[in-house]
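[User] At your convenience, examine this fold.
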Amino acid sequence: MKTFFQAIATTAIGVTLVCSLLLAGQNPDAQTTPAFGQSSVVEGRVFSKDGKPVGGVRVGIMAIPEANAVEGTEALLSLSQTDDEGRYRLETVVPGVYPGRTRHIHVRVQAPNQPILTTQLYFPDEPGNRGDFIFRPELVMAVRDEAGAKTGAFNFVLPV
């Protein structure tokens, strides 16, 4: 049986993954390597279907940097785990746009002893959103510019 993190890596067969492993609260001052592009943060909370925060949820994101968007030769993978209040924070880069797709970040979320939720998060006001056949408006992050980085916020509700 594959683990959560092995499953994320499997989605990028043929892609060299450059990994940044951050557990919630462990290294709040870590910076994304500038060579990969503009820094980005994805943060939010995970709630149960009855609105309670869920701790111990594994959250993983993968972004393909702008410089590699067409070739898909490198991706940045960030992993985290929610704290007792359901908060997560992941550092990555603003992903590039590749043919046929709008700007997006690949996401996997898994509560303890639950199936993995696999989805994508999107950026608001992207020209490609309307033409992307996978795009779902309910998965658009609230994005703000903060200290030279784009910070996207998104809360997940899991059926737990």
Summary: The chain is about 5% helix and 40% strand. The beta strands are 16-21, 39-48, 58-63, 74-81, 87-93, 104-110, 117-122, 142-146, 149-153, 156-158.
